[in-house]
Amino acid sequence: MNKPVNVSITGAAGNIAYSAIFRIASGQMLGNDQPINLKLIDIEPAMNALKGVKFELEDCAFPLLNSITVTHDLGEGFGDCDYALLIGAKPRSKGMERKDLLKDNGKIFQPQGKALNNNAKSSVKVLVVGNPANTNALIAMHNAPNIDPHQFTSMMRLDHDRSKAQVALKYKVQINDVKKIIVWGNHSNTQVPDLSKTEVKGEEIKEVMNTDWYVNEFMPRIQKRGAEIIEARGLSSAASAANAAVSHMRDWAAGSSDWLSIGQISNNNTFGITNNIMFSFPSRCSGGVFEIVNELEMSDSIESLIKKTESELVQERDSVLELLK
Ligand code: NAX
């Protein structure tokens, strides 16, 4: 057995966390030989609900779960943190503008960045799920100058897995037959799911990019899948988002033979995307480190779509400049 690692989760009394926490505690994120200290963070009014989550965790008698901390104190919650899943965020209320949501949530991610900087291990791996995830991750990263910017990521894995599943359905193949999915840009409806490099059973399917299915079915379905789920379920996606968060961290820690879509700092990319935004690039992951798949050529049609998602992220960043200190 390894020494226990510290996994901190914000928004721990919320819906996504409720699906993620039990899977993490059972070993599905870090493996069956990795004991875990869970540090569950939420705001003060949620402490009672969080105590209930702690009781349920105890009742599962997970062999890998070494300790459980329930707290609203960020210093305690991020103490010696190895893995941080920043899920908690304020939902968009009726009539609220996107820029107001950005400002309100930015005010959550600024203190969390500072607390990670001051309390977490310098090797901490951070995943931001709370929306607007890319720009929240940028804010947290800027407020943690002692942590390598590449250790901050934003979650695009749900969009990536949604794309993979739709391709598997279309081609009537198994999920593992589909490789090299890319989702570029922002976790919003400007994101660019790109199948120009995708392989099904080892064969490229780039010709699908010119079809009605890609333009009028696949692309809008992926971009608006969140809304489709709310419409059907009356609630936003939680279990699939939790699954994506667990998969993102698992593959970051243990590596993956397939490409992944990871929201990451754009500095020094070879695609001409502006610096200093959290942008999703195709990535390879091994040995606890990811790197952009830089050697790709973009088609003109994809490039113009990527410009739109890039420009949205620049606008988001510029609306929260005062939080990027
Ligand atoms: P819930 O509203 O169920 O839970 C949010 C939790 O965060 C609540 O318990 C709340 O008390 C807590 N919280 C609020 N402020 C906090 C703070 N300052 N510190 C710690 N905790 C705080 O939302 P849920 O369905 O769990 O969704 C969480 C976030 O994930 C939302 O922002 C949502 O938009 C976002 N999503 C992101 C996705 C992605 O792919 N990046 C997909 C799924 C999801 O939409």
Describe this structure in words.
It is a single chain. With 325 residues, the protein is an alpha/beta fold. It has ten helices and 14 strands. The protein has a nine-stranded mixed sheet. α4 (98-119) runs parallel beside α5 (133-142). It is globular, with a radius of gyration of 19 Å. The model has no long low-confidence stretch (mean pLDDT 95).
What tags apply to this protein structure?
alpha/beta; 325 residues; 20% strand; Rossmann fold; 2 domains; binds ligand NAX; nine-stranded mixed beta sheet; three-stranded antiparallel beta sheet; L-2-Hydroxyisocaproate Dehydrogenase, Chain A, domain 2
Question: In summary, what is this structure?
Answer:
This protein has helices at 15-25, 47-60, 74-77, 98-119, 133-142, 157-171, 212-223, 225-233, 239-254, 300-319, and strands at 5-10, 36-41, 65-71, 83-86, 125-128, 152-155, 178-179, 182-184, 192-194, 199-200, 203-204, 256-265, 278-286, 289-292.
Helicity, as a percent range: 40-55%
Mean pLDDT: 95
State the major sheet: 9 strands, mixed
* Fraction in beta strands: 15-25%
Provide the CATH top-level class of the largest domain. Alpha Beta
Describe how the helices and strands are arranged:
Elements (H helix, E strand, L loop, with lengths): L4 E6 L4 H11 L10 E6 L5 H14 L4 E7 L2 H4 L5 E4 L11 H22 L5 E4 L4 H10 L9 E4 L1 H15 L6 E2 L2 E3 L7 E3 L4 E2 L2 E2 L7 H12 L1 H9 L5 H16 L1 E10 L12 E9 L2 E4 L7 H20 L6
Parallel strand pairs: 1-2, 1-4, 2-3, 4-5, 5-6
Antiparallel strand pairs: 6-12, 7-10, 8-9, 10-11, 12-13, 13-14
Bound molecules: ligand NAX.
Ligand NAX binds next to α1.
